[in-house]
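User: Can you fold this complex?
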Amino acid sequence: MISLRNLTVRYGDTVAIDDLSLDLPADKIYGLLGRNGSGKTSLLSVLASYRKASAGSITVDGADPFENAEIMRQTTFIRDCLDVVQTGTVAKVLDFTARMRHGWDADYAARLLDMFELDPRKRVASLSRGQRSSLGVVLGLAARSPLTILDEVYLGMDAAARTAFYRELLADYLDRPRTIILSTHLIEEVANLFERVVIIDRGRLVLHEEADELKARGVAVTGPAEAVDAFVAGRTVLSDRRLGGVREATLYGRLDAQEARRAEASGLALGPVGIQDLFVHLTSGANAGSRPLEALR
Amino acid sequence: MFDDRSPIYLQIANAIKDDVLRGALEEDEQVMSTNQYAAFYQINPATAAKGFAALVDEGVLYKKRGIGMFVSPDARAKLRTGRRERFFAEVVDPMLAEARMIGVPVDEIVKHIGAQK
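Assistant: Here's the predicted assembly.
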């Protein structure tokens, strides 16, 4: 398990991660969601020990991972820059990674190269944006690290390559369960793969929830404005739309059967809200300013 | 197959119940494993497991240790009873409400149903 306690990351005066505490049990697929500049990469950098926290602590199975060779050998962090020698060939990069990672599976890496149509003789610098990302996926998956962190690895990948990535990720996870943390902006297309979702905003934790629980959290209530007004009074309203006399309010918080019956009896329609929509409502500037995030915890 | 909004484990449970009711899954027949299910539908295995656990709780499936999940011998009868109880409230009443809204008289509905026999 990974435990973060009052973790803070500062760059000069800028606070990227602000007093964040979080427990991540092992062997699950996590979705880390946050807007641009919310602190995702800073958080992942600390999780991967690429960076030391300014304050607070992180432990992986009880030990501090920073400059801890044993834990670092079991941690793979794939980010935009790939952290590989740009002038080397794809084959060289794989050889180098193979020496660093004792879980490395060379046959699997070769299969993945084929699948993504990557030529091992090509130099990394000559790869297209999407091919670089695919190389990142190959490095991330074939390392088979107990802690695998993939930070927006899909950049520039076309829809077919992304579909192949998601399929492989799940198939390999089913064979070899491990902790996988995915940060993404393409929430809708991977949401079904997440066991848990972590949302951060402005460096703070908004929520950490089972993906299926989160889905049950949002309810869209639609109907005559007065009836909606009466029903939503005193509840957390994430967003609001009106068209003539009709109001649609997105609520945060599960309704029990009795409440749902009461809503339907007063002529209101109840609809589900997807994770991506919930995420947008929970982190869009307009709402975040007027609504204390603490209310959600 | 999943709408991406309501909890998937409930959708899984409902899909399996429909299979049992239709007879696509026989009683005492083994159902797919959570991993097979997850890979086929591209969902997290914990989600699939949650759907199966709900069905075990409801007595639709039973577990054989180390082998897998099977359809309970009385699953179909049980599901039928449950669905029948809800049939009028969940299927007939909304249909009548729709008919009233668009001005279809009940006589006409009865005639239509009579012609279906």
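Chain B is about 65% helix and 5% strand. Chain B touches chain A at residues 2-9, 35, 38-39, 41-47, 50 (CB under 8 Å).
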